[in-house]
Amino acid sequence: MADADDExxxxxxxxxxxxxxxxxxxxxxxxxxxxxxNCCTEFxxxxxxxxxxICNNQMKKTISPEHILAALESLGYGSYLxxxxxxxxxCKTVAxxxxxxxxxxxxxxxxxxxxxxxxxxxxAKARQEQAEIEQQEWLQLQAAQAAQQxxxxxxxxxxxxxxxxxxxxxxxxxxGDDD
Length: 179
Fold this sequence. Notes:
6 helices; Histone, subunit A
């Protein structure tokens, strides 16, 4: 069996914040905070396990809010359903606003056409800079190749001169004159 430390739990900071917001003028002992934390964790585990069982019985693969509501009812927490449904509607409203709500672009105060024009300018500038970089690289490659050819030609002519001098020495030795 796994240690209690290995089990997932609600962050202590979240529970402490809830306690402070709900009971602003009340001191709560650390062991009482720990007990609230453990109760919250156990409650969530209980509800989610029951909702999972309901979900499986309905041959569903995803737990939906309806499964949570049914779990609350079957575990005897039916008196909380009205408040839970109200919170669910509030969450749905907030989520819908986030999806279709104001985006950062809308908060800029710049018309979309202007933003599109600026974007096109940035793309053109980036393409120009990339072309200049590629041009510089090509010129450097051409210069390196020209330098390499120059070195090969210089090495070839020095080698030919050296060979030519040696052949003259050999020719002189053929005359039979030993110096």
